[in-house]
Amino acid sequence: MITPAFELTQDPDFLTIKIRVPYAKASEFDIYFEGEDFKFYAKPYFLRQLTLPGRIVEDGREKASYNTDEGTFTIQLPKEVPGQYFEGLDMLTSLLAPKKSRSAKPLVEEIAASAELSEENEEEFDWEVEQIPYEESTPALQHPYGFGNLRSGVFQRLQDELSDVIDIKNPDQTPAEERRRKRLAAEAAKFEPDHYLADFFEDEAIKHLLKYKPWWIDAHKKMTALQGESHQEHDSPPFVVFSEEEREQMRKFTNKSYLLDKRSRHHVYLGLIDILLAYSYEICVNEGDKNVESSWNIRKLSATLCWLESFSSIHDVLISFGRRVLCYPLYRHFGLVTRAFNDTVMILQLGKAAVLKCLLDIHKIFRESDPAYILNDLFITDYCIWIQKVKSKKLAALCESLQKTTLSKSHMGLELEELEAAAVLVQEEEKALKAAGTVSKQQLLCSESETSDSEESSSTSSSETEGSDSDEQESSTSKDGEINSFQGMLQEERTAPLIDCNGLRQGTNTSAMEVGDGKSKVSLQSTTPPGKLIEELEMQIHSAMRLSEQPEGLATAGCISQEQEGNPVPEPDRFSEDAAGKGNFLEVSPKPNPFLFLCSTNEDE
């Protein structure tokens, strides 16, 4: 037989049960209800028994309908007491439990069985656990952990997965007090002041995350608005709606009864707060989206899951969560601690349906993460089953105690306030130095501009004076340059080679001419006729000469005569006299003219 999918709703007069049976024959079905019992059969579906939280009656007002398109039966059953509110209609696992399992007297009674009965009759709940002096334990004893500290020896069989799931080594041989000491030491070693201060001052991304509104904020607003309008809480519609996947998961859970003593119940309630805080942080920083880090965030921030911690007070839970937020995740800001605290309060105020929805989401995250599924077996599955049977007044009392608990940075034990004060002082000093540097830079720029203005004015006046001096220097320099260039050309003319033009004058057809210095001669070959060559040379000589005043002491300078060789040669026409009888010097042009033409006197001429 198949257990069908179903859901229950109510109004003041009727209880409505909607059962989905897509492959059943609509003409063949059976319904049975009486008091708190309800049964349904339509082959191959069988809803063996629903144990209702209130009584229903058969008085002729009941009715049923079948939707062929959806394949669902809708059954309306009248309440025995009109207006009565049936609590826990969303707790499907609890509703599927056989009625006999709810008996306070089991067939085999244990000493701890009285704890469950006493919890039902207990009006006020003290959330502070009784302190027991620490006792040294024997090494052979296995220390319990898990939901209600009901498990032990699990990690002896799962050594390979141990390091990926929890931080404590050898938990079976480690007592609770030693776990706490090791956890505090690990958190103190992991805390990084630089990371914390970076998130403290550069908090734009964190402010954006704090604006995110998860589903429980809107549900809480609706609940508050309806409670303000009407004090009839039982008439209000449900503020938490489960998805079909969540309902299916609840139907798969095996119904259990937990025999917990008072101390174990305290650990369970406080562990629930710790897990919800970690879940609230995860939803806030990822804005409701799941990723590969979601499983790591939840189990790392919850000391209950990561260190198998058993807390003794709500304040210890908050301190542990706050320290771990500031030590491990990506965003380490105290504002996220406060936000998770407020979200957890809202979830508890919405009731066990909201708590169950969060636990089912955590169960799904761990189920899809390897090897975090071990934590489902140790904690989350049991929490999902247990929370469905918890009285709403217990959660209300727990929520009220949580709201009264205060948490500040000084409680973290990480010297946060001192770090922030020191960082603020450093920032102020840097700003002061930067401001002073800006002022000094401006003053330096002003002084430089004043200096440059004065230099420009002085340079303007000096440039005028230097202009006149430079003109005089240029004129004198040019004169000196002319004299030096003239002397250099005279020196070049003294060493210039001589050209013997005798062979050329004779009008021979030879194309060779000899160049020499009077003692040795070099033959120059040319394809130009001799007469033509002489004319070109004479033109160059005349164009390279200009008439200037004869310098003193140079009356006979540069005159080359063949008298030195014993042949009288007329003096070249390098000088001329003006009307006053003063000699004029034929100055050589700066153009290079290395040839000096000399003609010997022949009798033929």
Q: Key terms for this structure?
A:
four-stranded mixed beta sheet, 19 helices, 46% helix, 13% strand, single chain, 605 residues, elongated, alpha+beta
Q: Span between N and C termini?
A: 155 Å
Question: How big is the Rg?
Answer: 57 Å
What is the helix content?
40-55%
Mean pLDDT comes to 75
**Which structural category fits the helices and strands?**
alpha+beta
Give a short account of the largest sheet. Answer: 4 strands, antiparallel
GO molecular function: unfolded protein binding
InterPro entries: CS_dom (IPR007052), HSP20-like_chaperone (IPR008978), Shq1 (IPR039742), SHQ1-like_CS (IPR048696), Shq1_C (IPR007009)
Subcellular location: Cytoplasm, Cytosol; Nucleus, Nucleoplasm
Protein name: Protein SHQ1 homolog
